[in-house]
Fold:
Amino acid sequence: MSDLNFQNGDKPRHLSLIFVVLLYPVAIVGRRFIGILDHVGEVFYLLVDTTRWFLRGVFRSQYRLGKSAIVSQICRIGVQSIFIVALVAGAVGLILALQLSPPLDDFGQRDKIANIITVAVLRELGPLIGAIVLTGFAGASIAAEIGTMVVSEEIEALEASALNPVRFLVVPRLLAASVSMTALGVISSFCSIVAALSISVTVLEIPYQTYVDNMLTQAKLVDFLTGVVKGGVFGTLIGIIACTNGLKVTGGAAGVGRATTYTVVECIVAIVVADLVFTAIFFALGLF
Structure:
């Protein structure tokens, strides 16, 4: 009888253990999901605050934007990224031309390489390549720079001097990232197309005039404009995510390293998701 009572007494404990085992994964997923929503809210709030300060600088004379700071950030973020973006985009253009040649040869349509590459680069690959390169080149740098300011208490010094960190730190970097990414997207597309053209004419023996005619026939103004819009949005995402992660750094040097890592990962995920959303919208509107 005592053994039976002992076993019956163990039943609630066994059931509780079962519930813990079953609900633990749910708790982990829920905690991660809430953490993601919280971080998205932080990014959105900073974007709204940055927009507010930008509009104040545009429409109110007492709030100047600091043109020298913006130009300095554009030079640091955009100008210094041109070479690496051009190099990567040109390599991608060469790869696409060489990869497309064998399957198109089976249909006797090698000259259609121009049509495919032009559309793919203008709509997708140009701004996407530029954004991914800029994420590693400038996004991580912005997060580390602002994070170091937080660790060294420079942000607190600004606030103690009645200087808003968003106005003096975030606004110039966000504007610079957006403007630079818009230009880099165009540069990336141009380099990819020129690289594909050069190897198609020299190695694949496609007549130059045929390649150019096919390219101009296929390309439309809307293809170029969609790439420009994507570039601006991608740059905004890179700038705001990097600034958010930099401002929330805790834990000293290790926290700066975590913020840099999170910035690169989050920017790439946000860029790909935004690209998917844009593609779905443009497809639904019949812009392709």
